[in-house]
Amino acid sequence: MNTMTESKKTVTLNYINGEWVASDSEQTAVSKNPAKIGEDVGYYQMSSSNDFNQAAVSARKAQKAWGKLAGSVRGDYLLKAAAILEERIEDVATAMTQEMGKTFAEAKGETARGVAILRYYAGEGMRAIGDVIPSSDSDALMFTTRVPLGVVGVITPWNFPVAIPLWKMAPALIYGNAVVVKPASDTAITCSKVINCLHDAGIPAGVVNMVTGSGAKIGMEMVNHPEIDAITFTGSNTVGKQLAHAAVDRGIKYQLEMGGKNPVIVANDADLDLAADATISGGLKSTGQKCTATSRVIVHKDVYEEFKEKLLAKMKTITVGDGFETGTWMGPCASAGQLETVLSYIEKGKQEGAKLLYGGNQVLKDQGYYVEPTVFENATPSMTIAREEIFGPVLVLLKVDTMEEALEMANDSEYGLSASIFTTNIGNMLSFINEMDAGLVRINAESAGVELQAPFGGMKQSSSHSREQGRAAIEFFTSIKTVFVK
Ligand code: NAP
């Protein structure tokens, strides 16, 4: 059982060395439902250094035997975990909607994605892990193979509490690593349910561990712990940079996936209905809390007014509410802090002189952390709302005279995660593919679409320049060994 009951409270436990255990700190924290002020989802452990140490040591002990198993055998555990997670989609998605507010339909979709990720990486256990390279000595055999890194520390955010832990853990495990996971506090309960699927699949004790609690404490202990050989992190740039410094000091491998300020370009030959639908879906689904969410909407002057009217008409149909309610299209911000951040950016936008076209207000105040879908116009590229990641349902319209200007503006950002263009012109498409500085470039599709079998990651400040997901994950989670046999 991943929980215990204490004074009528349901308390989620840590998972260390194959067992669900309470922290020796004897301290817990509460996870709150952002859709219903005052509703507690449950409690999780505020772990101590000792808890983390036990997890790291047990991972180290387990990794040797795990790494020696055939890839297909490791894959069988992932397949079993996938089947169990599939049976539990409703339960896991319920926890996700309760903890961070995304609609139940989106939460189920994400959990189904988690199942697919496990299945995809199960197959990786049987695929090639090296190349034969002709040696200059004709009597020798030279080839590469790949070996696990050892124990990988996994630190994840709250916005995809099933998919992100799995798209890090599944490749880590299939390539023979053991893991210690520190999930975001806001979604620790959801993550524990995912870990429980691996536990119920019979994964050997110590191969997977989860320790919840303060990021500043457990996260920093993780990167500095001698038993941790690598860190994979998704979250904010501020924390990512701290982890990178510590990882460099220790000389361990690290991978960071961080923020975005993703543009969409609407060309004067675009299908404007398609562009408006994709801008809304890419910018406002999950309440804009996706790293790949559309934020800057760069529109050619010839179609600006028509596009704006279409966008506004569609935005006005969006229903904000509890993610469990039928008809809700957009849930609350994930926490009180997140709502405050979004509202402060909206205020900043107004102060700096952008025109609030629609939305901008907190709504259903007595119920939860809700904000209206919001769009600004008359913004300039130097305004805060056009430069900083808001991580909320706020779009900024920017008008341009030419496609060259559009591309230049799209690239005028410290981030480079995802970018879209809507156009029917092949020349525009090619320029965008070649010149857009983003890890994901998407033509006539929203900025937020990601497929698990393809590499994922950003350029510039959006990432540490490695890639996650698909076959690309092998690059981070293994080391190459060149073998020469004479
Ligand atoms: P965050 O505050 O950086 O937290 C991410 C994780 O780091 C959480 O588990 C957090 O734990 C932990 N943490 C906090 N302080 C830490 C520290 N000093 N040392 C080590 N770990 C620490 O980010 P967030 O607010 O959860 O997530 C939003 C950000 O993630 C956005 O910038 C978004 O763009 C980015 N994101 C990027 C991607 C991508 O793939 N590029 C995907 C999703 C999200 P606690 O929860 O306990 O604080």
Summary, kept brief:
The protein is an alpha/beta fold and 486 residues long.
Topology at a glance:
Layout: E1 3-6, E2 9-12, E3 14-16, E4 19-21, E5 28-32, E6 40-45, H1 49-68, H2 71-87, H3 89-100, H4 104-124, E7 141-148, E8 151-155, H5 163-174, E9 178-182, H6 188-200, E10 208-210, H7 215-224, E11 230-234, H8 237-250, E12 253-257, E13 262-266, H9 272-284, E14 294-300, H10 304-315, H11 336-351, E15 355-358, E16 362-363, E17 370-371, E18 374-377, H12 384-387, E19 394-400, H13 403-411, E20 415-416, E21 418-422, H14 426-435, E22 440-443, E23 459-460, H15 473-477, E24 478-485
Parallel strand pairs: 8-9, 8-11, 9-10, 11-12, 13-14, 13-21, 14-19, 18-19, 21-22
Antiparallel strand pairs: 1-2, 3-4, 5-6, 7-24, 15-18, 16-17, 20-23
Bound molecules: NADP nicotinamide-adenine-dinucleotide phosphate.
**Total strand segments:** 24
Query: What's the arrangement of strands in the largest beta sheet?
Result: 15-18-19-14-13-21-22
* C-alpha termini separation: 53 Å
Helix content: 25-40%
> Structural class of the secondary structure composition?
alpha/beta
Strand residue percentage = 15-25%
Principal-axis shape equals globular
Mean pLDDT: 98
With helices defined by DSSP (H or I, 4 residues minimum), what is the helix count?
15
**Would you identify the regions where 5 or more consecutive residues have pLDDT less than 50?**
none
